[in-house]
Structure formats: C-alpha cells, structure tokens
C-alpha cells in the first residue's frame, strides 16, 4: 500500500501567495489588453493557466493534436476546478461554465476575462444557452464544454447530457468539429494514484473550495494526462444523443487506457 502524502501548510501558503500575485498581475494586464482591443483574447489566459499549473506543481502530459484552421467544440470529462487551468493551458478556447462560477472569489473574475460563457443549469434555459454557444462558434471561437454537468471522482465518466450537442448538428464546410478530450489524474508525488490519492485533487463532494484548494497547494506534485481524441462531425451522427454517447465512449476509453486497473465506464 502506497503511503498517503501529507499536504504541507508552509508549501500551501507560499504557493497561494504566488498564485494571488500571478493572478492579479495577469488579470490587470488582460484588462489593459482588452481596453486597447487586443484581438487575441486567449493568448494571455493560456500563459496564465500554464503559470498556475507550474505554481501548483501540476505536470501536464498531452497526447494527440487539435485540428488546425477549424472552429472546435472540445468535450471533456470533469474532475475538478483544476481542469480549468489544466485545459486552459493546452486548448485555445473559451469555457462553458455554470453560472455560479461567475461569483467565485477571484476565479469568477478571471473566468470573465477569458470570455467564459456562463449558463444556468435549468432546462428552460437551453434555448438561450444554445444561442450563446452558436453565436460564439459562428465567430470562430472554440468552446470547451463539460457535458457531465458536474464533476466526478476522476476514475469514472458520468453520463454525458446531450442537449447542448445540438450546436454542432449543422452541416457544411464551416461547421464546427467536435474533439473529445480525456482528462486523467494519474500520479501524486510520483506515486500512481489510487482513488484515495485522486480524491486529493477531485472536487466532487461538499468540501469547501478554499479548504480543497489549500490541500492541493500543499501537495508536492501531480501528473495529469490529457488525451485529444480525433475530431468528428456532428452531422455524421443520427442524433445529438448518438453523438453524446460516442463522445462519452471515446473519453471513457481514453481513461481506461491511462487507468487500466480501474473502471472508467462507471459503477
């Protein structure tokens, strides 16, 4: 049995101080760039996310490539708020996030500066959500969506909700492509993660955000594997549900390859 790591309060305090300095510095610079109408709104956020990963000791390994010169909808499994800085440093795109994220301390403001689309988790609002996403995709903005609708324990993929997949049912040369993405938390302090170790990073229970973040910041390092699966066309599927099921299978298969001793398909 591998020894459980003990988060260091000293390390956590130092890293959080660095995180705050880094965040406030780059947020200020992003505001200036937006005021001067700097065209590339994602250039600085990608640098920010990569810096956050370095500060928190998150080592990111990427396999696969995104499709160039196409508008893309990235579909990923969701483990933690850490997925934002992990994927944000790898993928050029704006996140589609639940509305309450906009009110999170510091992170909400940073999300707004990255052109995040905030949506209410209410079925009656689906048409409005689709309109927001369609407008973004029509202006060649890539989007990053977590279709599970919540975060999981990192060892299983929850069912994908299909409603928002409707935005990629269009046909034509300029129709957006869909890239399924697997996010796998594999090692902590160089030790292969079991569920107990993965729970240090997964945020799917009632642990307060501040408590969880302090614990993460106190751990030495983690390795996260990102698998970029081949792009697909939404119009190649009979329905959005079939597309959602295909993406879920791709993501779960990738997780099974990286975590072979576990059951990523679910309980």
TrEMBL record:
Phospholipid/glycerol acyltransferase domain location: 72-186
SUPFAM superfamilies membership: Glycerol-3-phosphate (1)-acyltransferase
Transmembrane segments: 12-36
SMART domains named among the record's database cross-references: PlsC (SM00563)
Record pathway: Lipid metabolism
One of the GO BP terms on file: phosphatidic acid biosynthetic process
Entry-linked Pfam families: Acyltransferase (PF01553)
GO MF annotations in UniProt: 1-acylglycerol-3-phosphate O-acyltransferase activity
UniProt KW keywords: Acyltransferase, Lipid biosynthesis, Lipid metabolism, Membrane, Transferase, Transmembrane, Transmembrane helix
Cited PANTHER family: 1-ACYL-SN-GLYCEROL-3-PHOSPHATE ACYLTRANSFERASE (PTHR10434), 1-ACYL-SN-GLYCEROL-3-PHOSPHATE ACYLTRANSFERASE-RELATED (PTHR10434:SF64)
Name of the protein in question: 1-acyl-sn-glycerol-3-phosphate acyltransferase
